[in-house]
Write a structure and sequence with these properties.
Blueprint: E1 2-4, E2 18-20, E3 26-28, E4 37-42, H1 48-63, E5 69-75, H2 87-97, E6 103-105, H3 110-115, E7 119-120, E8 122-126, E9 132-135, H4 152-162, E10 174-177
Parallel strand pairs: 4-5, 5-6
Antiparallel strand pairs: 1-10, 2-3, 4-8, 7-10, 8-9
């Protein structure tokens, strides 16, 4: 069953985090301090909503320089119940799709809770001060890229880089619920 991302207050500080990456490195919020924007994407392997927008997320990451935008993926799902979301499977997908950005594993699910993440995908765009600028969907058709008319995330990133005020319309993401541990 699909659920929507939570409505969050713009200007909220990005929660601090320090997590292992699927490739064995460790990343913290401070490691992304140099870019003008930071896109934090709660994603996973098994969710059909993520699968449907995955190439669009990768295209966004490749469309901007690291000085302008850094992207980080985080999987917080219970890998015991969803083996496709186990670290080794995440690594395989990350390599296969050539993500080009770190993919972190939130095994304890503390980071997802700190962000108030609800679903996959759940996308958070932060400005250079790491204040929430846009929390919402990639575009207006999660299911079919050929039917997209509004590219909300890409437009929000461009507005952030121009120094514009955050978009008034924060369009909630829909997706699979985060698979919480008991």
């Amino acid at each position: 069953m699909a659920i929507e991302s939570h409505v969050l207050a713009l200007g909220a500080a990005c929660p601090d985090f320090s997590l292992p990456s699927v490739d064995g490195k460790k990343y913290a919020l401070k490691d992304f301090a140099k870019s003008k924007g930071l896109l934090v994407a709660f994603i996973c392997n098994h969710c059909p909503y993520v699968k449907a927008v995955e190439d669009r997320l990768l295209a966004i990451a490749k469309a901007f320089s690291e000085a302008d935008l850094q992207v980080v993926g985080i999987c917080s799902n219970d890998a015991g119940l969803y083996p496709e979301d186990a670290p080794l499977e995440l690594l395989r997908r990350w390599e296969q799709k050539q993500y080009g950005f770190p993919y972190l594993v939130d095994e304890a699910q503390d980071v997802a809770r700190a962000f108030d993440a609800a679903c996959t995908p759940d996308l958070y765009l932060y400005d250079h001060n790491r204040k929430l600028y846009y929390h919402g969907r990639i575009d207006d058709n999660w299911k079919d890229a050929s039917q997209v008319h509004n590219h909300e995330m890409k437009e929000a990133i461009k507005a952030l880089l121009r120094g514009d005020a955050p978009p008034k319309n924060q369009m909630n993401t829909i997706g699979c619920s985060i698979k919480w541990k008991d």
